[in-house]
Design brief:
The protein is mostly beta strands. It has a single domain, classed as Rieske Iron-sulfur Protein, CATH 2.102.10. The longest helix has 7 residues.
Length: 132
């Protein structure tokens, strides 16, 4: 029997959450993992995942907009760098990001990422691993 993609070595923390084509068509989606709402964004050919609750006041970030890699919450206009979750506004905290992989046309994410040891914003995990 062939190994399941969800249990391959090195992929044990990642779970399948969406179909890449469907996400690309919609541009955004909300998934729930471990009881947490996570926002997925397909932006400029890349996939990103962040906590769907704005850290400023809890508004759903999927109701915001993304332009030039900046996610803007439409409630109080808090702005976040989509890749790393860093905020541009001193009155808002950084938004939690989640590592993302794309495999065989599906989007996978790590719903319980390791904390950033460098003291930076977001989770500090760099660009999502998406094949080009």
């Amino acid at each position: 029997m062939a190994p399941d993609a969800d249990t391959d070595a090195g992929a044990d923390r990642f779970v399948r959450v969406a179909d890449l084509d469907a996400l690309a068509d919609r541009g955004t989606a909300v998934v729930s993992e471990d009881g947490q709402a996570i926002a997925l964004f397909h932006h400029e050919g890349e996939v990103y995942a962040v906590d769907n609750r704005c850290p400023h006041m809890g508004f759903p970030l999927t109701r915001g907009s993304v332009e030039d890699g900046v996610l803007t919450c439409h409630w109080h206009h808090a702005r976040f760098e989509l890749e790393e979750g860093d905020t541009f506004d001193i009155w808002a905290d950084d938004v939690q990001t989640f590592p993302v992989e794309v495999r065989d046309g599906a989007v996978y994410l790590d719903p319980d990422p390791e904390p950033d040891g460098e003291g930076g914003g977001g989770t500090g995990r760099g660009r999502p691993r998406v094949p080009r």
